[in-house]
Amino acid sequence: MRFPTLFASLLLVLCFNQIYSINRVTLLKRKIGLRPSGEFLNNIRQWKHYFNQFKTLKQLPESNLQDIGRVTVKNYLNLNYYIPITIGNPPQNFEVAIDTGSSSLWIPSKHCSFFNFACWVHHTYNHDKSSTYIPVGDAIDFRYVTGHVKGYISKDQVTVGNFTLINQTFGEAIEEPGFTFVSAEYDGILGLAFPILSDTGIPVHYKMVFQSLVPEVLFSVYLNRDEKDTFGGEIIFGGYDENKFNVSTLKYIELSAKTFWQFKLDGLQVGDLEIELDQRQAIADTGSTVIVGDKEIVENFFRIIGATQDEDGAYVDCDKVNQLPPLDFIIGNQKFRLEGKDYIIKVKVYIFWTRCYIGIFGMDLGLEPWILGDGFLGKFYTIFDGTNSRVGFAELL
Ligand SMILES: *[C@@H]1O[C@H](CO)[C@@H](O)[C@H](O)[C@H]1NC(C)=O
Ligand SMILES: *[C@@H]1O[C@H](CO)[C@@H](O)[C@H](O)[C@H]1NC(C)=O
Ligand SMILES: *[C@@H]1O[C@H](CO)[C@@H](O)[C@H](O)[C@H]1NC(C)=O
């Protein structure tokens, strides 16, 4: 059931002051989508709070193939990247955020609780209307960094692009406590990390291999960073598109864990200044808008580039974005460069006043990996190669 947009926005505004839980997937997205300053800053504050509270929870438990596996991604203001899928027979339509930082697939259920407001304003799955539905019923109750989903597992056919996955398990969300998902542009989440992190059974990119739809656990992501363009890029299951990137720049990085898409982060370079990192890891996470790193290092970076800092984040004069030094991430003896314009997020603070926030957050990460979110992944064509346990980054053409 999808209420008219006006109703959705109204609900959102009414609930705004009560927001106490924000999913890392939506992160800044909603704030930037709405653009009022106080809310944006409040949410950064709350997000930081919840990040620190919940950050470990997620860790618990070439032929024409490239054309067959291709799915067009939608982009909402560079903030949400999501794709259409269908579930059931006859097919029921959903839009799900692509999240390489989690592994579960879930969508809101038709049988959601009355107080699940997210369910009022999103597509819901009605298993009673699907001839291919198979009940499973195991309870799910899991959290993202700050979001929370409760419900049960069901089995049905799921179509992603041209691929139909038979007997795919996924979560039917009955409760989505908090307001995390109420204002999301997407209905649910498609987790694309490794199966060990999944609460809903085998992830779709593995199911594709088991069903011999693709030869190996591999997919590629291209994100369009033109926020005025609704074409958000592409995800290709089973292959990659060499017309999208400069092949001679493709560099593969070995994974250090097969949980998240995780690898060693050796250091950073800002202009001429090198910052060595000892024993640090990073993950490639399409589900995060921003880059998240160690507080001390990130704050040093802010000082070096002359950013103004308050408790909510750091920003620079928008006229100076072109003069910002490049930021290189050193991974596997390679430098991956972001220019100033790549690591800036423009936020309209008041009607005629835009502020250029740095899309990098400093947190007390402890031993948690750095998060290379869309600000980083939008700069490079990324190949997620689970079979060979590596990720490939290449310059976009
Ligand atoms: C795959 O889907 C696209 C549309 O999404 C379609 O144009 C294309 O023909 C399909 N390819 C195959 C082999 O089914
Ligand atoms: C799907 O599950 C049903 C019920 O367990 C089973 O009868 C059917 O053979 C399965 N189909 C496939 C393709 O695995
Ligand atoms: C591709 O990358 C190589 C190596 O950096 C560079 O010399 C070449 O000009 C690039 N080609 C294109 C089309 O950008």
How is this structure best described in words?
Mean pLDDT is 80; it is low at 1-41 and 53-62. It contains eight helices and 25 strands. By secondary structure, the protein is an alpha+beta fold. The protein is globular. It has helices at residues 5-15, 29-34, 37-54, 65-68, 117-120, 204-210, 295-304, 374-377, and strands spanning 70-76, 80-87, 92-99, 105-108, 134-143, 148-160, 163-175, 188-191, 218-223, 231-237, 251-254, 257-258, 261-270, 273-284, 291-294, 308-310, 313-316, 327-331, 334-338, 344-350, 353-358, 360-363, 370-372, 380-385, 390-395. The chain is 16% helix and 41% strand. The strands form four sheets. It has a six-stranded mixed β-barrel. Strands 12, 13, 14, 18, 19 and 23 form a six-stranded mixed β-sheet that branches. The site of one 2-acetamido-2-deoxy-beta-D-glucopyranose has 3 residues, from loops.
Write the layout of secondary structure elements.
Elements: H1 5-15, H2 29-34, H3 37-54, H4 65-68, E1 70-76, E2 80-87, E3 92-99, E4 105-108, H5 117-120, E5 134-143, E6 148-160, E7 163-175, E8 188-191, H6 204-210, E9 218-223, E10 231-237, E11 251-254, E12 257-258, E13 261-270, E14 273-284, E15 291-294, H7 295-304, E16 308-310, E17 313-316, E18 327-331, E19 334-338, E20 344-350, E21 353-358, E22 360-363, E23 370-372, H8 374-377, E24 380-385, E25 390-395
Parallel strand pairs: 3-8, 4-7, 14-23, 15-22
Antiparallel strand pairs: 1-2, 1-10, 2-3, 2-6, 4-8, 5-6, 6-7, 9-10, 9-24, 11-25, 12-13, 13-14, 13-18, 16-17, 17-21, 18-19, 20-21, 24-25
